Amino acid sequence: MHATQTGSIISPFYQSGNYYATHADPDQDSPFKAKAFLDLWHRALGERHVSVSSYADVGCGGGGAAALVAEGLRQDGHCLEEVAGYDISPHVLTLRHKEVTFYYEDFCKVDAEYDVVTLFDVMEHVPNPVDFLKGVAERCSFIGLHIPLDRSLMNCLFDRFRQRLKYPGHLIVLDTPMALNLIAMSGILALDYTYTHGYSAPSGTMTFLQRAAYPVRAFLAHVSPWLSSRIVGGVSLMIVGVTPKGLQRMQF
User: Fold this and answer.
1) Which of 98, 175, 211, 212 could connect to 151 by a Cys-Cys bridge, CB 3.0–4.6 Å?
2) Can you tell me whether residue 106 is helix, strand or coil?
3) How far is CA 176 from the centre of its chain?
4) What single DSSP character describes residue 117?
5) Rounded distance between C-alpha atoms, residue 8 and residue 20, angstroms
6) Which domains are present in the chain?
7) For residue 45, is pLDDT > 50?
8) CA torsion through residues 188, 194, 195, 200, sign
9) What SS3 string covers 196-218?
10) Are strands 235-242 and 140-148 parallel, antiparallel or unpaired?
11) What predicted TM-score, i.e. pTM, was given to this entire model?
């Protein structure tokens, strides 16, 4: 592991670009995640008259989610002057999106601040996630997080956690209360959350087994998203939160 005094603890697996190379289409689920975030943003902050002029996606992958979230914010009337994507993988130097500026940097070491920051499936890859989230929160007013809920009956029954340590590198195992507790311990006030279901994302319908399990997973999700997350898994939590800086800007 590579550690810095003021930055994040980062696995060489991500720094080398090997993790990014495992994704044939890194932006496959970007529309799915961007829509879930924007829908929740509208619900949590749509009536609070918060203005957004800068936005960054941390752990931006292929950059597609950053571009789509920025497009959605602009459609809502926000005058975005700066849109950025940060990643510690060197592939980010090759990315090209018209409206997004990409940075090959550890976000927790940059001297920059943004109105909104998103971390889509990032936090679970980082040791010491509380300090990591505190570092991110110091650099923004509002934050969006997409967090996999790996603590399911199926994952426990088949002891899949060892496998997930290796790939995709999930270092923490969370359910809904655990995720919300971790956010609070990081000094972030969760405003609202929603469940997202991997079975309905493009990456969740690629194999025959995934397609065969679709009716059961969809039924459980309809009955109770929480129950689905605890039994069959493949469920994540999208959270919109506010940092201490953001609290000063909100109208209650």
Assistant:
1) 175
2) coil
3) 15
4) E
5) 18
6) 12-243 (3.40.50.150)
7) yes
8) negative
9) EEHHHCHHHHCCHHHHHHHHHHH
10) antiparallel
11) 0.92
